[in-house]
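Encode chain A's predicted structure.
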Amino acid sequence: MAKAVARAGSESSEEPAQPLIALRGISRLYDGGAIAAIRNIDLEIAVGDCVAIVGASGSGKSSLVNLLCGIDYPTAGTVSWEGRPVHTRRNWSRLRRESIGIVFQEFNLIPTLTALENVELALLGRGLSAGLWKRAEQWPREQPRLIV
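Encoded structure for chain A:
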């Protein structure tokens, strides 16, 4: 079982803050369990943490990232956001729209749109009008809380 551990010297007398996102006993199996991309992972990421997921090809990095942002769903275990379990596609969609920024390894752009139009498309998901980038003073001040 993999488990993230606190950094040395980070102990305090205060009760620890709720993690931004937590994975508990997460597994992701494929082909009816014949292939285990991830098996029994526990991970907590706190607000402001910077986490690097490294490993050999085929070690489950992409599967883990897909689970962290709700693109894929675990075969077993629980994913929680700020202490609340995230179960439904609707919950994940809201989190991706409001709190999670995704930078894909592959570009995943719509080929008939320009790069700018592809970015504007993401803004429409937040209810913002196209062309908003021209009015910088109206740009949302909020930044995504988790970028994967």
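Residues 125 and 132 are 13 Å apart (CA to CA).
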